[in-house]
Design goal:
single chain, about 325 residues, alpha/beta, 434 Repressor (Amino-terminal Domain), Rossmann fold, six-stranded parallel beta sheet, six-stranded mixed beta sheet, 12 helices, 12 strands, about 45% helix
């Protein structure tokens, strides 16, 4: 493999001149530039990203640790993060934890050893990243998305899930529904707990009772929504409407209603959460709480880059405001 010294020798210039031509960080005459360019082409030389990162003390890479899920929300979010990285001249190294604590910490150690310039964490709260590993690499800026597993200097970006659950349930109340159930995510997750509390808050404010069995704990996945809706349909007095803690569970609930011969919204109204791309193509299109996934990814990268540039700045906590998107799964 050709080196910069080989290029310099063939072009008859110094290695520093070759570096200036490649990096375009200093004026080099057109004639010399042509010689260096020709030598690079002849030798099929490729600059070493490792050497450059050692020299500049940065790799232009950002690591992201995420828990695997069939929920399309995460893939849409990662797409926004990757696009934002590309637009800002960074590469994204994505590690999937598969919900396994050992794998999560091994991936975390690997990302740190690869000297990523910054780190995004979007993992389950059941298994928290090793605080020991995080403390071993204190110079790596970190942005937590949705929740912060421990106190520290990491920035936090989160959805206002309490307000979102309230808005979703209030929409059903405003449409005249009084028997309203809730399909929650796993209650070891902060967003799931807050969305459930938002549902309860709206029901209390309207003076509506929540009968026993109207709150079903799911898992934020398609299958969890399917099973939870089957449980609600088996209730002696099934609800007229349901707030699903995310769109993935709402999709599963649609299938359970279809198999039971029920129609949406005539027999059961549904409001979801996340506004995944699939939501608008459901039959009928799903009313849901919009989370701006592309904007969330862009915001996470911008906050992280800002933290990398100013590591001593005060910790940032950014909360996004949920918005209701009304479609066809609730009656007019």
């Amino acid at each position: 493999m050709a080196t910069m010294k080989d290029v310099a020798r063939l072009a008859g210039v110094s290695t520093s001149t070759v570096s200036h031509v490649i990096n375009k960080d200093r004026f080099v005459s057109e004639a010399i530039t042509d010689k260096v360019t020709a030598a690079i082409k002849t030798l099929n030389y490729a600059p070493s990203a490792l050497a450059r990162s050692l020299k500049l003390n940065q790799t232009r890479t950002i690591g992201m640790l995420i828990t695997a899920s069939t929920n399309p929300f995460y893939s849409e979010l990662v797409r926004g993060v990757e696009r934002s990285c590309f637009e800002r001249g960074y590469s994204l190294v994505l590690c999937n934890t598969e919900g396994d604590e050992q794998r999560m910490n091994q991936n975390l150690e690997t990302l740190m050893q690869k000297r990523v310039d910054g780190l995004l964490l979007l993992c389950t709260e059941t298994h928290q990243p090793s605080q020991e590993i995080m403390q071993r690499y204190p110079s790596v800026p970190t942005v937590m998305m949705d929740w912060a597993p421990f106190d520290g200097d990491s920035d936090l970006i989160q959805d206002n899930s309490l307000l979102g659950g309230d808005v979703a349930t209030q929409h059903l109340i405003d449409r005249g529904y009084t028997r309203i159930g809730c399909l929650t995510g796993p209650l070891d997750k902060t967003p799931a707990r807050l969305r459930l509390e938002g549902y309860r808050k709206a029901m209390r404010r309207a003076g509506l009772a929540i009968p026993e069995g109207y709150e079903i704990t799911g898992n934020f996945e398609f299958g969890g929504g399917f099973t939870a809706m089957q449980q609600l349909l088996a209730h002696p007095v099934p609800p007229e409407a349901v707030f699903a803690g995310n769109d993935a569970m709402a999709v599963g609930a649609y299938q359970a209603l279809y198999q039971a011969g029920k129609h949406i919204p005539e027999d059961m109204a549904i409001v979801g959460y996340d506004d995944i791309e699939l939501a608008r193509y459901m039959t009928p299109p799903l009313t849901t709480i919009h989370q701006p996934k592309d904007e969330l990814g862009e915001l996470a990268i911008d906050v992280l880059i800002h933290r990398m540039a100013q590591p001593d700045q005060q910790q940032q906590r950014v909360q996004l405001t949920p918005e209701l998107v009304v479609r066809g799964s609730t009656r007019n």
